[in-house]
Amino acid sequence: MSDLAGSFENSNSKPLSADAHAAAELDRSSRAVRRTRRASSLGQILANSLIASQRGSTALLRLSRPSKRNALDNAMIAGIENFMSDPPEGTRAIIIYGEGKHFSAGVDLAALSESRAQGGSITFSRAFHRAFDRIENSEIPVIAVLQGAVIGAGLELAAAAHIRVAERSTYYALPEAALGIFPGAGGAVRIPRLIGAPRMTDMMLTGRTYTAEEGMPLGLSQYVVDDGQGIAKALELAEKVAANATLSNFAVLQALPRIARMDPDGGFLLESLMAALTTGDDEAKARLDAFFRTRAANAAHSPNGDDL
Amino acid sequence: MSDLAGSFENSNSKPLSADAHAAAELDRSSRAVRRTRRASSLGQILANSLIASQRGSTALLRLSRPSKRNALDNAMIAGIENFMSDPPEGTRAIIIYGEGKHFSAGVDLAALSESRAQGGSITFSRAFHRAFDRIENSEIPVIAVLQGAVIGAGLELAAAAHIRVAERSTYYALPEAALGIFPGAGGAVRIPRLIGAPRMTDMMLTGRTYTAEEGMPLGLSQYVVDDGQGIAKALELAEKVAANATLSNFAVLQALPRIARMDPDGGFLLESLMAALTTGDDEAKARLDAFFRTRAANAAHSPNGDDL
C-alpha cells in the first residue's frame, strides 16, 4: 500500500495529515477498545478490523485485517453498514481502502461456512447487500483505492463504489465456481454493469484474472496509478468532488444510475426534473453569478474576454 | 484453422487426441451416413455439414461446409438445435468451431431466398432463434472458436456462445443492410449486449469490419490467440470450466445473465438465493472443507499460511 496509507496502518506513527488534531484522533483510535456501535468521533473504531479517520471533509475507512488479506467477516460488514448509514457530519467524500498489500481477498470463508452450518447463508448474503447498497446509494461520493488482491467479495465491494483507483499491483479474480459457491454480495448485479456479463462469465467459468492495467479499459477501475499513489490520487479526486455543488453531486449519484436503467421515456423526464431542480437551487444561482462576474472582470481586460 | 482442428477436418486423419478410443470414434463418424435424428454416440453426424466429436468430457461441434465458408442452412440450424437439446451424457463443456479458413460467413443466402419465395421468412428466422437460444441457455458452457469470416449469422451464432476465442485471422462484419436485409438470428438482441448498440449501428450502416484484435476490447471475444491455436485454447478453457462445481456453472450460465437484465432489487434477491443454494450444496461443503484442510496443512509449514 502507499506510504501515505502506511501512516494510517500504525496509528502510533505519523498520520497522513500533519494536523495535530487529526494526529491525536488517530492515536486515540489505537487505544480505543472494540465497540459494536459506531462512534461519530474521528478516529473511530467500527470493529477490530475497520478503522475510520478524517482528513478535512474526506472520511477514510480502512479495512484493517491484513493478516487475512482483509477478508470480510460479519463484523466488518456490519461496520461498513453502520459507517455508511451515518457518516461524520460535514463529510463530502469517502475513501475506502485496505491495510497492507491487498484491498480484500473476499469473503471470510470461515464466516461463510459458519453461516452455512447455521442455515443462514441467505441472511449472510443479505447483510452484504445492505452494507454495499449503502455505498452505492450513498449521497456522498465513495472512492475505493485498490491494491493487490481484489477477489470475490473484495471486487463486489469495489464495484459498489462510485470511483475506483487501482494501484498497479491490483489483480481482479472471481474464484467462486472453483469453490462451489456463487457471488452473494451484489457482484452478479454490479460487475456485469462494469465489464459486461460475458467477461464476468469468463472470469467465473475459467478463473481468469485481470491486472490493473488490463482492467481499466474494461471498466474495472477509472484510474490506474503507481503502487503507493492510490491514497494520494483518491484524496486529490475527493477534493474535486467536494468542490462541486451538493445538489449536483446528489444528482450524479442518485439520478444518473437510475436514469441509465430506466425506460428512456421516463428517463428523459427524470433528467428534466433533476436539471430544473439543480438550476433553481440557490447554490446554482450563486455559482452562475460568480461565473458571470468573473467573465465581466475578464472582459474588462481583454477584447475577447466575453467568450463563454 | 488450427493444426489441431485440422485433424478433425478429415476424420480419416490422425485425430486430436492420440487416444485410440477417440480415434476409433472419429473414424466411425467418417463412415456414418446422414441421419436426420441426432445420435448420442460419439462421432455423430447431425447433417452433412455438421459433425460432432468428443474429447473427454468436452463435446466438439464442427461447422463442416468449408466450400461455402460454413454458411448456415436449414439442416445445420436444425442440427445445432438437436445437438444442443440433448448433448452427449457427461458433457461438461461444448466447443463450436468451423472447418477450413472461416468460422461462418453467415446465413446461406440461397436458403434465405427460398424461405422468402415460400413466404416463410419468419419461420426461417425463428428456427435460428430456437437453435441459438439452446446455446445461450445451455446448462453446459459453450465456447466458440473463431477464425476468418465471422459475418452476419456467423457473428450471431458466436454471440450466443458463453466464451469466444478468436484467432488472429478473425474479422467481424454485418453486411445485411447492403443486401437490403436485417439480422434475423438473434444478433439485434445479443450483439448490442456485447459491443453496445452504437457500435452495431455503425457496423450495419457503414459496413465497417473489426479485426480479432480490435474486437476483443470491444467485447466481441474474451480471447485472441494466434492462428491455429484456437482449439487448443478452447480445450484448455474447457478443462477449467469442467473442474468447477456443477451448480456454480449452472448459476453462472442461468442466473448471471438474467440478474444482469433484471431490475436490481429482484436481481439482488435472486443472487442471494443462488448464493445460498450453492453454499448449501454438498459439493460446496466438500470444496470448502478441502480448502480449509489445505490451509491448515500450509499453516503447519508457514506462520503466514492461514491467509485466505
Which features would summarize this protein structure in a list?
homodimer; 308 residues; alpha/beta; 2-enoyl-CoA Hydratase, Chain A, domain 1; Lyase 2-enoyl-coa Hydratase, Chain  A, domain 2; seven-stranded mixed β-sheet; three-stranded mixed β-sheet; 14 helices; 10 strands; disordered N terminus
Give a structural overview.
2 copies of one chain form a homodimer. Chain A is 52% helix and 14% strand. In chain A, α3 (74-85) links the parallel β3 (58-63) and β4. Chain A folds into 2 domains: 3-243, 2-enoyl-CoA Hydratase, Chain A, domain 1 (Alpha-Beta Complex); 246-301, Lyase 2-enoyl-coa Hydratase, Chain  A, domain 2 (Orthogonal Bundle), CATH 1.10.12. By secondary structure, chain A is α/β, with parallel strands linked by helices. The interface between A and B is large, with 49 and 54 residues.
